[in-house]
Design brief:
Structural class of chain B: mainly beta
Structural class of chain A: mainly beta
Oligomer: heterodimer
Shape of chain A: globular
Strand content of chain A: over 45%
Radius of gyration of chain B: 14 Å
Largest sheet of chain B: 7 strands, mixed
Shape of chain B: globular
Strand content of chain B: over 45%
Helix content of chain B: under 10%
Largest sheet of chain A: 5 strands, mixed
Radius of gyration of chain A: 13 Å
Largest interface: A-B, 20 and 25 residues
Number of helices of chain A: 0
Helix content of chain A: under 10%
Number of strands of chain A: 9
Number of helices of chain B: 0
């Protein structure tokens, strides 16, 4: 399973765009990239998933360059409630079971 | 959306007792369920993977006789912490993998806070 590297922490202010980059140099051809959000004392919550180029949903965008060795989660106009830990994971989407191995995550603090 | 529940949400027990934690997929059938533990300010650590009707697969370093996992149906998996000790105090989280065609998303439960006195 590909190892991921993310910044340990980030700080931002309300209304700003936040970009969290994840490195996954050993990503395999069949691996997808998934981002989860976790609040204290809660289970992780799925944010977005992609394979290549750009994916956008109602809460975030995911940018994946052509070599797929990194990915960037973009959170537009963050609010205080976006303060959480964000995890980047890579793994096989289909075929066999998808064993998610969590890295250290990025602790995002949004300030007023 | 797919919902995974855990019961209890928090439990306090005495050292030496056993504690059972239930994980249920409420509106979907789960081919596979996963159990994680998380210490304060740390990431989630995968403990084991359970498939309905078969024995769980434990990650390296996780004692299978200490953490008993039963996956009796497509909607229920249980984790029993046997002879619990204070070092077993942690946040235990389960996730369930949907068997719906075309999706392999995992849905996480809200977690169970175990405190062993």
């Amino acid at each position: 399973l590909a190892k991921t590297t993310q910044p340990i922490s980030m700080d931002s202010y309300e209304g700003q765009e936040v970009n969290i980059t994840c490195s996954h140099n050993n990503i395999a051809t069949n691996d997808y990239i998934t981002w989860y959000q976790q609040f204290p004392s809660q289970g992780p919550r799925f944010i977005i998933q992609g394979y290549k180029t750009k994916v956008t949903n109602e809460v975030a965008s995911l940018f994946i360059p052509a070599d797929r060795k990194s990915s960037t989660l973009s959170l537009p106009r963050v609010s205080l409630s976006d303060t959480a830990v964000y995890y980047c994971l890579v793994g096989v989407l289909t075929g066999g079971y998808n064993k998610l191995i969590f890295g250290a995550g990025t602790r995002l603090a949004v300030h007023p | 959306g797919a919902v995974v529940s855990q019961h209890p949400s928090r439990v306090i027990c005495k050292s030496g007792t056993s504690v059972k934690i239930e994980c249920r997929s409420l509106d979907f059938q789960a081919t596979t369920m996963f159990w994680y533990r998380q210490f304060p300010k740390k990431s989630l650590m995968l403990m084991a993977t359970s498939n309905e009707g078969s024995k769980a697969t434990y990650e390296q370093g996780v004692e299978k006789d200490k953490f008993l996992i039963n996956h009796a149906s497509l909607t229920l998996s249980t984790l029993t912490v046997t002879s619990a000790h204070p070092e077993d105090s942690s946040f235990y989280i389960c996730s369930a993998r949907s068997r719906l065609a075309g999706t392999d998303e995992q849905f996480f439960g809200p977690g169970t806070r175990l405190t062993v006195l």
